[in-house]
Amino acid sequence: MNDEEEHDRHLGPQRSDFHAGIGWLLLDMALVAGGMTALVKAQGVNYPAFQLVFVRAMIGLLFILPLIWRHRKEMRAVRYPWRNLFRICCNAIALTSNFIAIGLLPLATVNAVGFSRPLVTMALAVTLLGESVNRYRWAGACLAFIGVVVVINPVGGEINAGVLVILLSVIFGALAVIQARALRAENTTVMMVFYTVGLAVITAIPAVWTWRPVAPFDWIPLLGIGLLAQLGQYCFLQAYRKAAASILAPVSYLSLLVVTAVGYFVFQEVPEQRVLLGIAIILISLLSTAILERIARPRM
């Protein structure tokens, strides 16, 4: 038995706090899907994705410096450095590709295609973490995936570069989520510092290579991206420390409504009927899964 297994054995069974986990995840959606995504969409016209990710990481690091000082003892006792490093690499690829896709596609389309991630996440949670997923969640995830296929329209439409980029974000985003759940015993501040510093280091060279001078007034929304992202990251980590990945994954579908509303009211993006149909299928899958689980709970 290795040190990690020994530590998990002493932790004992982890009891998921369903309501707290969902609450933290909803707050993360409001900050990231509602706020940060709009700022990235607006600034992505003027600045490349690598630069936005790098600036986001550096600004986020400044915001958490007080936390680093407060938890300096924990920073010297990282439990799983290699797993933290792998999570950071996955996040860097997922975030950069997502920023690129936001600049190429309407927000509703980016977020709808991104919701193939919960299906991937649930499959990885079963395979890598040994979590159990009941048949209602699997059925709901599969129905949601059909909604994503409707949005992509692979038969009647052309799969452009933006769709391929967001699918890359889906794969590595799911891997990052699984690592966040596996690192639930790690200190939250340690994970945030690893994440922020890691993003800055990994994106530094491509950011310098593609760098564009920042206009003075543009630093205000860039600061907003960093702040909202860091607050969202804290909420995200708290959510996956409280509840199982297989439970939280379908709940994240609700951010579709937030992002679609932002695209419509802020950027005047009117979704195509096909996209609206796909979003409707995804939301129906979420609601039907929740209702069926509640009905069947006494027998489960």
Automatic annotation (TrEMBL):
Protein keywords: Membrane, Transmembrane, Transmembrane helix
A Gene Ontology cellular-component term: membrane
Compartmental location: Membrane
Keyword tRNA processing: no
Record membrane topology: Multi-pass membrane protein
Domain EamA: residue ranges: 22-152, 162-287
Superkingdom assignment: Bacteria
Annotated transmembrane regions: 21-42, 48-69, 85-106, 112-129, 136-153, 159-178, 190-211, 217-237, 244-267, 273-292
Alphabetical list of InterPro entries matching this protein: EamA_dom, EmrE-like
Family: Belongs to the drug/metabolite transporter (DMT) superfamily. 10 TMS drug/metabolite exporter (DME) (TC 2.A.7.3) family.
Protein name: EamA/RhaT family transporter
